Amino acid sequence: ARLAAMGEGASTAPFDEAARTLTAELEALEALLFDLRLSGGLARQDTLRWPRRLYARIASLAGYLAGTDDPPTEQSLEVLAVYEEELAEIRTRLQQIRQGSLAEFNELLRRAGLPPVS
């Protein structure tokens, strides 16, 4: 709708391509955190078909750690460190998207007199 306000005959092709690129990068990043193929509680075997993503693994670890009065085991802390490294990599990728595809998309919007995506 915003692009339609640019006027008759204005090409939206640069916006379309930039939006597709940005969407693909964000979806790939999201897939590292959540498995969007999972269908909720209806198909319990879904979690057996595909490897658990980072969010589910962190939630599982939190459940184990919260389920006892004992301090975390050395193994639990090692697993946590691995998850923290994975999360740091995801944050780095997100920052790269912000500085790359998102910045380029927002520059297109700015040149067209449209508000940026935050």
Structure, described:
- With 118 residues, this protein is mostly helical.
- The chain has helices at residues 13-33, 46-49, 54-66, 74-111.
Keywords:
118 residues, mainly alpha, 4 helices
Give start-end ranges of low-pLDDT stretches: none
Strand content: under 5%
**Rg estimate, integer Å:** 20 Å
If helices are DSSP runs of H or I spanning 4 or more residues, what is the number of helices? 4
Order of H and E elements? HHHH
Furnish the topology, listing elements before pairings:
Elements: H1 13-33, H2 46-49, H3 54-66, H4 74-111
Describe, in short, the structure shown.
It is built from four helices and no strands. The chain is mostly helical and 118 residues long. It is elongated.
